[in-house]
Amino acid sequence: MYSEMVIIGILIAVIYSEITGLSTGGLVAPVYFALSLSDPLRILYTVLVILAVYGLDKLLGRYLILYGRRLFAVNVVLGFLLTWLVGITGLLPMGLRVIGYIVPALTVRDLERQGFVKTGISMGTVTALSALCLMWAGML
Q1: First to last CA, the chain
Q2: pTM of the predicted model as reported, rounded to 2 decimal places
């Protein structure tokens, strides 16, 4: 059931991207946000990790040559480290987790390419459409 939900969300993201020419913060990010709508704190903490990765990315970019795969790899590692550090320090309430390790890196990649407004609107739209389809199908 879970994999079907993810596939539906990815299909919606691809169709949206083809129609608008805008990326959604990674094909899987909006569906994971849709699946987490019942836990808004999880979404909030994920957005905070995304913003932290974005800020660290910009800071490191001043001192290192980061682009392409290298930049994406650094963002994946930063997302993992931030999520892991927040988890082991107990900064999050018990049982609360950030949405995945790869979602922050995927979203930051699109933030850098399109900016906050286009990526935010695209992600919000596809998250809402994914949630509506999942509710209609009785999967959410």
Answers
A1: 10
A2: 0.89
